[in-house]
Amino acid sequence: MERVKFYSSSDMSIGYHFDRLKELIESCEKLELNNFLDILESYNVLKFISNKIYPMNLPDKYIKEVKGRFNSKINQFFKKISKEDISEIFRCLFFSDDSDISKKLKNDSIDEDSNTLFRGDFLECFEQYKLDEKVSEDDLRKYIEEYEIPIWYFIETQYFITKYPDLMKYIFLERASNFELLLSNYTEGNTKRFIPTNITKDEMYKFCEQYIEYKFANLNYIRLINQGIQGCKELIIDAKLKLKSRKRCEQIEQEIFSDNNRGIGQKIAVYTEKEHYNVAKEEFKSLIDVDYIKKEGSKENLLEYMMYFNVFFTDNWILNLCSFPNLESSTLMRTLSGVYTKKNYETSFYFSNKNSLMLLSFKVYQEKLEKLFDLRIEELIVYFFSNYSKEYFFIDWLSLDFASKSEKLHIQTKNLFTLEEQIRKQWKLYIDENEIDKELFELEATPRLNSLGSLLDRKYIYINNKNVNIQKIMYLLFSDQSHITYINEELKGNDFVQLIFNNKIKKTDFHSYQQLNIDFLIDNDVISVDEEETIFTTKKQLFRILIISNIYKYGVIHYYHWNQKLSIKTELKYQQQEIDEMIEEGLLIYENTLFAKPEVEYLNYILNNSEFDNALGLRNKYLHGSVVEENEIDYFYALIILVIYVIKINEELVLNEDTE
Hints:
Blueprint: H1 14-26, H2 36-50, H3 60-80, H4 83-94, H5 100-107, H6 114-117, H7 119-128, H8 137-147, H9 159-163, H10 165-174, H11 179-184, H12 201-212, H13 219-227, H14 239-257, E1 268-271, H15 274-279, E2 284-287, H16 290-295, H17 299-307, H18 325-328, H19 331-336, H20 349-373, H21 377-393, H22 409-433, H23 438-443, E3 460-463, H24 468-478, H25 496-502, H26 512-523, E4 528-529, E5 535-536, H27 539-554, E6 557-558, H28 569-584, E7 588-591, H29 597-607, H30 618-623, H31 632-659
Parallel strand pairs: 1-2
Antiparallel strand pairs: 3-6, 3-7, 4-5
């Protein structure tokens, strides 16, 4: 017999449990609960009901009565439970032997998997019904040690730490692997657990040292210790711990690769001839068209050419080098990609490859410019700020002095990061004062990236995170975890939008537990149904779905660009009207900044150490006195960032003229 188990309201297994759930709810009045597994299953039925997951044809009054009956039976069971009963439950749930109770359960045709299915539910009930009044610390220690119960079962809440503090501390420090539970609290996507508060910082420091030397230490967690964890309150990860963890990382990596293990590779290529590029099979490829460059060799054209490097900007003119997790990796891939701190900049294979492609593109372009014109990208940047801006926009920038190419590479790189700060300060002055005054510049502090303003109104559009409806709409439409993506093996999609666009689907095709969310989308005018209950979208709804889709994928949508680089003015105007309405309705918000939020996060990841634990921190590395070696990658990252400033500032100036 497959028992009902509640995991979450968005869990994909809900449909699998629904028939059994319906049976239990409808037979509640005459239902006999013969053992503790019946009780724990009923406890899960209540979770389904509390989350409004039950047959829709049942009246509210009946559901209320069902809740009352189940609650009454569960309360009676735990009120009468004895210490011996509790001991047997621990034994049955956590020890897979041929005990009498196990034999009885098998004879009662209860699925053996149920023995482990309800472990967490039993401990929830242990807390809810205050079974600590019947179980002493010595008793609980006996159960934990005899059945080898992992500590993590007991630290989902503070309850066991409060009621059994000495035991929880002892059990936590007993195994080096438990240190991962502390680290996981500072990572994304993992269940957060409470750490015994009676462990001192000195004890935790020694425990960390013990974990670093632990034979089965997880390389991902050792790397977290090496990079440091901002906001860790249980211990201070100092330079000594970082050094120990770095050496341990090297040791583990050497062991991994000593057996000629190889990772998954992806070929990246930059072509200089169009014919070769067109037939190339690489997913990550780019073209530096030498024939075109020779023909269109003015500085203005050479500067503009970089704007269209493959993977540099999206069709909506958002910097495409940023990490876009919803687009570039599935929930499953993010789950399998290791552990990261909460202040981690989420990367992926796709993110790494597109950035590697851009670095290689700039390297090849720099080589071709020098060979064909004895020219560097630095000189194109100077041209933009000294000649182009003055001629077309009447802006006098303060001069930018680049290091000579005869200088050592790390000197050139340091110079580029210095110039990035200068451009940042000058743009802020131009926005605030409409001119760049040298004396003010010398007194101005370097502004934060997210504080750089825009000349444009309603430039970047975001989801209004304070609006619960739009958050739910976006999740239901596009998340691969939404439970309205699957009806049966013939009717399924990666997300809901794909499901309804690829199939002719009626509202009634969805299971009853999915109907509430379908009704929610209809009530919020996201989708429509005709007289036969077939789902369709109007032109207005389709435009809104496209807008929300872009924001879901990229975190933002540019108000002044249609979703392709050569804007279609009619479509763009219609999109802007919809965005304006959605702002008025409180679904969307806008910000007027030079960089969009994903762009700011990317730049902070490259430049600074303060925002992300895994940041490259190149600006800090070169400007704060670090001893650096020659590094071509750092140099080209710095060059790319300056070109990003050129592209974003030029866009501002052009669009500002067009909208005046």
